[in-house]
Amino acid sequence: MTRKSIVFILNPISGTHSKAEIPGMIDNIMDKERFTCQVRTTEHRGHAAEIARECVKDGVDVVAAIGGDGTVNEVARSLVHSRTALAIVPCGSGNGLARHLGIPMDLGKALKIINLCHVEDFDYGVINDLPFFCTCGMGFDAFISLKFAEAGKRGPITYVENVLKEGLKYRPETYEVEDETGAKRYKAFLIACANASQYGNNAYIAPHATMRDGLLDVVILEPFSTLDAPQISIDLFSKTLENNSKIKTFRSRRIHIHRREPGAIHFDGDPIMTGCDIDVHIENMGIRIVTNPDVVEDTRAANPVLNAFSDFFNNINNVREDIVHQGRRIQVINKVLLRKLTR
Questions:
Q1: Which residue has the higher pLDDT, 100 or 298?
Q2: Bridge partners (DSSP) listed for residue 287
């Protein structure tokens, strides 16, 4: 039996944990009768993409990205429309694509999935000529990605700190969004285009997105108040965001977005500054990925506890609206009484 070749590309600085033990784990876990394995360590930004391109040229069967969504994107964009498959050993802060595909967060279990070498074809997206595999977007999430990149430290705590610190100051923008059906204007807090279901850390921006339908899931979050924020947060983590009144969604193969001023966009969480016009489209079945044969993309049911909290906050919102309505009536009655008393 001819052995398959696998090159593991290790990003030593992604995520929040040391990766010193990973080469040893690869040596112990990978099936040497089926695979020849090599570990390459990245030395600078963009190096993972360079190594992956070499692997395609050399006819390597599988390239495994060891790192977070940024490392996965670097590797994957060099593998598109080739016979070389992507594998993922998730070691990042969010691990959005790995979670969507049901790749275990446990490193040993992730390596055992690669041992099975179950390869499938998937879609990927392109925003202004930049490939993405999970999500891209503009507005607040791109702005936060920029702040996160500038923070100098990784991890969900840093991300949450930035969201809380900057969220109250951020001002929504006006966008013109054009797809196959025509153009519409939106005032939006953010616009996300999803190929997969989540940002990472089980935050589901597009709960029903699939990487096999040849379509983008476009999610528009309209301006909201601080009173709406808890419900939006709960919906994001409980796969119920599409039910929120502040959310508009549609599917399309490609869209064009125009905004008044240049600004940030992100692709798989990596931010970049760009101009007023943004083009996003799907490349159907353009990337081969080693998957977990026991999982069909992300088919996990929503968390019933979080759904209960979501229902609870929805009820609070209804009560709040009643209170506001009743409060207005009371104010009117008070004014009438005051006028009568002061006559």
A1: 100
A2: 122
